[in-house]
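Study this pair:
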Amino acid sequence: MEEISKVQRNYHGDIISFQTSSGRIISYRKAVLEASVGLLHGVTLNENEWGETELSSLSVEDGTFNDYPSIF
């Protein structure tokens, strides 16, 4: 099972894609889909205040991906 290992952010600081432990680069939306069917390990899905599904990391206490290295 794959885990998220790196992130890519846009100029606003929003995560737009992830790199997995196998080296695949997937969009945020694809990561949500894969997490929802159990293909990504170490993440959880949450609904935000606008009703959108968000990913949270299970490997850090605050659930953010702030300490993950950048893809580029």
Observations:
- The mean pLDDT is 96.
- The beta strands are 2-9, 15-20, 25-27, 40-41, 43-47, 53-57.
- The longest helix spans residues 28-36.
